[in-house]
User: What shape does this take?
Amino acid sequence: MVSVAVGRPEARTQATVQREDARAELRALAVSAGLSVVGDLAVRRERPDPALFIGSGKVIELGEQMHALGAGVAVFDVALSPVQQRNLERELGAYALDRTGLILDIFSQRAKSREGRLQVELARQEHLATRLVRGWSHLERQRGGLGKTGGPGEKQIELDRRLIGVRVKHLRAQLKTLHKQRRTQRRARVRRNVFNVSLVGYTNAGKSTLFNALTGAKAYAADQLFATLDTTSRRCFISPECEVVLSDTVGFIRGLPHELVAAFKSTLEESVDADLLLHVVDAASPARATQMAEVQRVLSEIGADTVPQLVVFNKIDQIERVPAVQRDPCASMIAVYVSARSGAGFDLLRAQIAAAIRASCNEPAQAADAALAIPISLTA
Ligand code: GTP
Assistant: This one.
């Protein structure tokens, strides 16, 4: 794993804490992609090298280290340009991946449903298209310098772009059809007057574990990032007389590659149509405040920030906290502390969901106000 601190020395020191979080997350992503991390290389640079990002001296050092460790992939905690990636792979004789590359790889390994697979394929193709476009303008510049027009490289790129364009169009059409089907199913649920609750939250917060515990289902829960890519819905009883449809959704992550945000928008949009969002937070994570802010940012991007929300601080068994309900100063309920693993706090959570259902039936305006009042800086 190669971590690069870019900038002047004083700025680099200030950013150390965030960089440590980012590094830990990159390591988790690498493990989730099925890689084992065998070595680390820290690099400091005032500015990135345009051809190799880390500079030729460091590439030699990295190559030697990888050779000695028998490593076949170098994972970078910075965004590599297509040219840098290609040059690094050539120099190292191994794969060079950055965060986006890793996330795309995980998503393609995990997608199970037809919709999930189509979404990942769309993201990959779009990612590929941006790389070709950039390569293309690079070629164009070269051509301008040489005073030539055309050439075999240019023709190939043009052909590749056209093929990708056709594929993207085809994938979008298929997804649109599936999206319509989902919408119809959702409308049917609304007509049946079912209360919809969606679990949202940063990847690895414990959404699937909570979903399984509440519904008695067997959704895939694992200590991996993005274990769940498809939305799974199930009916469950919150109390003997109160039934809801609970949906587990794809996890959020800081700086999700924009191709993936676009591709997963339709899946995430399910949250917009929910009557209540359970925002699951890993209360034991030191990065929980940033993670919550990121989730809120994406929720407002997809227009789901006006849906009533209940914050669920999960994994309290790891921080030795007792189950509790925390209210904001206006006395609207804001957060419940639970352990999805042990079931501690479930009675409180169920009671709060039931209260939200009552609020939505009797006082919709108040329910919406409560959602807007949630302070995202709240800490566990
Ligand atoms: P994505 O699919 O990546 O979005 O993850 P998720 O939010 O669905 O998380 P998941 O349920 O897969 O849980 C992630 C890890 O946290 C698993 O190893 C769980 O066993 C663990 N976990 C979940 N809830 C708890 C909890 O209450 N306590 C502890 N100690 N671990 C938990």
The two ends are 31 Å apart (CA to CA). Residues 152-191 form the longest helix (40 residues). The first strand starts at residue 2 and ends at 6.
